[in-house]
Amino acid sequence: MVMKKLLRNPLSMIGLILLLGFVLVAIFAPWIAPTPENNKNDPFRVPRYGWGSNPEPPSKAHPMGLTQGKYDIFYGIVWGTRTAFQVGLIVTGLACLVGVIIGSTSAYIGGKFDEVVMRFVDVFMSFPFLIAAIVITAILGRGLDKVIFALVIFRWTGYARLIRGSVLQVKEEEYVMAARAGGVSHPKIVTRHVLPNTIFPVLIQASMNMGSIVVTASTLSFLGLGAPEGYADWGQMISFARNWILGTPDNPLTYWYTVIWPGLAIVLFVLSWNLIGDAFRDIMDPRIQG
Questions:
Q1: DSSP characters for 108-124?
Q2: At a CB cut-off of 8 Å and minimum separation 6, what does 70 contact?
Q3: pTM of the entire predicted model
Q4: b vs e for 211-246, b when ≥16 Cβ sit within 10 Å of the residue's Cβ?
Q5: Judging by beta carbons within 10 Å of its beta carbon (0-12, 13-18, 19+), is residue 202 exposed, middle or buried?
Q6: pLDDT at residue 232 is higher than 50
Q7: How many Å apart are CA 153 and CA 96, to the nearest integer?
Q8: 3-class DSSP state for residue 251?
């Protein structure tokens, strides 16, 4: 039923087509952009074709050109798709899991326990997300594992807040109280009756957060706090272009390819998830349907 409604929505169809395109690129990356023999042990390492600093325009050998350091832009974009999915799915999945467990448990138990947990959540939410992630990655050092850790730490709170509000309403419903009166254990009540009726808003929020997670990870890489240098990551590909964005005095678009291709990849990836998230919200939100 949900899939039929998605297929009937033009915007959701655009999002699905874009996302499917990125999925196919990620799956077939070894065939789309074959790894050079000297990089076989580390396929995410973007190959270099020289040691000069000046970028080189697109050519038959390098369809998207070479960026600063003679890194192949096409290879970085293709394999960077895998990096985007890796970071987005792991961060969103872990943050969602932690937030759902803490938020639902806090709301179901209620009372002083709920108050203490929510004040703890408020402390984490008081930190600006990007600034907090920058501080954590600066302390831990460079690497995608550090980026993932930093993003999970400060991302779960939104899911905890969202699921808490839903659980507070559902736990007072008659079918939940009937299960309690029937002697059903609390863990079973939560997993069988409460979560199935409260999880959809969280899943919608998670799908819409995928894009922002990738943008944040790319920002950290652009600042030199994310992926190691030379790693296939869209943010780092833009970082290589930072000295060439303005081109030359006589032609500002001389090095357009150094920033347009990675920037376009990020924009389309974020757009695909946002369109799908909006479509899910429109389909599953009874207030909008009404």
A1: HH-HHHHHHHHHHHHHH
A2: 48, 49, 50, 51, 52, 56
A3: 0.89
A4: bbbbbbbbbbbbeebbbeebbbbbbbbbbbbeebee
A5: buried
A6: yes
A7: 11
A8: strand
How far apart are alpha carbons 289 and 285 in whole angstroms?
6
Residue 227 structural domain: 2-289
Q: What is the CATH number of the domain that holds 117?
A: 1.10.3720.10
Quick: pLDDT tens for 272-281: 998 888 777 7
Whole-angstrom CA distances from 253 to 60, 65, 70, 189, 245 are 20, 14, 19, 61, 8
Contact 283, 204 (CB under 8 A): no
Hey, what are 163's tokens?
């699921």
> How does pLDDT run across 37-57, given as a tens digit for each residue?
888 888 999 999 888 888 999
Q: 231 - beta bridge partners?
A: 45
Q: How many CA atoms lie within 13 A of 240 on its CB side?
A: 36
Number of domains in the chain: 1
- Which residues are within 8 A (CB) of 29 and not within 5 positions of it... i.e. 6 or more apart? 43, 78, 79, 81, 82
Facing residues of 56 across strands?
66
- Name the residue among 246, 259, 258 with its Cα closest to residue 65: 258
What CA–CA distance (Å, rounded) separates 137 from 225?
6
